[in-house]
Amino acid sequence: xxxxxxxxxxxxxxxxxxxxxxxxxxxxxxxxxxxxxxxxxxxxxxxxxxxxxxxxxxxxxxxxxxxxxxxxxxxxxxxxxxxxxxxxxxxxxxxxxxxxxxxxxxxxxxxxxxxxxxxxxxxxxxxxxxxxxxxxxxxxxxxxxxxxxxxxxxxxxxxxxxxxxxxxxxxxxxxxxxxxxxxxxxxxxxxxxxxxxxxxxxxxxxxxxxxxxxxxxxxxxxxxxxxxxxxxxxxxxxxxxxxxxxxxxxxxxxxxxxxxxxxxxxxxxxxxxxxxxxxxxxxxxxxxxxxxxxxxxxxxxxxxxxxxx
Length: 309
Known about the structure:
It is a single chain. With 309 residues, the chain is mainly alpha-helical. It has two domains: 2-41; 69-307, MetI-like (MetI-like fold, Orthogonal Bundle). 75% of the residues lie in helices and 1% in strands. The chain contains 13 helices and two strands. The chain has helices at residues 2-50, 69-74, 78-109, 116-122, 125-128, 131-142, 148-155, 169-197, 201-209, 214-242, 246-251, 263-272, 277-307, and strands spanning 53-54, 64-65. Strands 1-2 form a two-stranded antiparallel sheet. The longest helix has 49 residues, at 2-50. It is globular and about 75 Å long. The two termini are 40 Å apart.
């Protein structure tokens, strides 16, 4: 009983000491937290606030409250629906290919072969190029009659005449996906390579002693271990792919027609070409909700993987 009484008496004192110890940490973290809130929470709230108004940059004084009018209109807007649909196709197509190619490249780079370090460094070149420069370069390479891609395909006898890659909706979308794959596959490969380098060697040695084949080692040892790294790469790349603007703006500008129109380009056109700020804010807010719905389960799964480690 005396021991229990002593513990009960000491508990508030321990909590008080703990709160005093945390006070300096809270004071030191406060400026960073306030700065983070100012650059994240405030723009989010302002975006939501603006979406309930009819506001045009050409006539700012005519700002009027319309409630959910912008949201009702965007679900009937063919351009908005097309932009969201194209964004889903582009994001999942590009990220899916990047994950496959990135895994294969990471497995190759993980081998102790001569020249692997030089190849790893060269892989960083696409990531180091300014996105608009990369997009315009690809546009030049794909556009006949001066584009190198069609020219050399014709010289090699693969095609009879140069292909207008950006002339049809399907080929233009594939070109956009190819540009994103070229640009960001090295990023995925480097993340997965880091995971491969941190694999437990005792499991690999045990599998080798037991006579496991390479594909069995990959399926039952390597792939489960890489799960968290794959989730990290998928989350980061999905977020960036959904926000893609420079690539589509520089390569196709949404064309031909609206076949490659992405949600980011829709927001840009509504806000800075049509000057419908309130309407653009509503589109951006729905776009943010859609992205959150897709990425939240992945982030939750990643947290669970880290917790269960």
